[in-house]
Amino acid sequence: LHTALVEDGRGGKALDLVNTSDGTRVFCVVRDVLGLVRTFARLSEHFVAEFRGRFDAGNMLVHRLLDVLRYAGQLALHRLNEPVLPELHAGVFGALQAYVHWLAKYAAEARDSPDGMHAFAELVTAVSDVCADLLLVGGGEGAGEGGGGGDG
């Protein structure tokens, strides 16, 4: 995705879907990823309903959503002129929001275990870091440049 980004002449970046040989493919991949993200959001209730049996899968999915948000923040997708990119960024945040009940269940289950509480606290910290990065650098010039945040 980052290879299709070009300067837009106003100090920002845009996705070059015309002059990039892979532009159409990038656009299609972004739309497909958005569809997957929406599907993952809809599945969140299943991870809550069978929390213990699906904990590992739910935990992995939340971490992958955070990875996508970090990458989107580094590219400052929310600031690009191509409408599908801010939509993707917002969609990933929406999918993460869908897991708030899963996070609440995680907190309740982890309460009795020091190791569980530590892992939960790390996950909540990662979520907070990703959100803070967007809020702190998201609106300013050079957003996403060096403000990528978390390392895990």
Instruction: Let me know the number of strands.
Output: 2
> If you compute it from the alpha carbons, what radius of gyration comes out, rounded to the nearest whole angstrom?
17 Å
Count the helices. How many?
6
Can you list the strand order of the major beta sheet?
Answer: 1-2
Question: What gross morphology would you assign?
Answer: elongated
Biggest sheet character: 2 strands, antiparallel
Helical content class: 55-70%
N→C terminal distance: 21 Å
Poorly predicted runs of 5 or more residues: 139-152
Order of helices and strands: EEHHHHHH
Strand content: under 5%
Supply the helix-strand structural class: mainly alpha
So what's the oligomer here?
A: single chain
Mean pLDDT across all amino acids = 80
In words, what does this structure look like?
By secondary structure, the protein is mainly alpha-helical. Helices cover 64% and strands 4% of the residues. It has six helices and two strands, in the order E-E-H-H-H-H-H-H. It has helices at residues 23-42, 44-49, 55-75, 84-98, 100-110, 114-137, and strands at residues 5-7, 13-15. The chain has a two-stranded antiparallel sheet. Strand 1 (5-7) and strand 2 (13-15) form a beta hairpin. Helix 1 (23-42) runs parallel beside helix 4 (84-98). The longest helix has 24 residues, at 114-137. The radius of gyration is 17 Å and the shape is elongated.
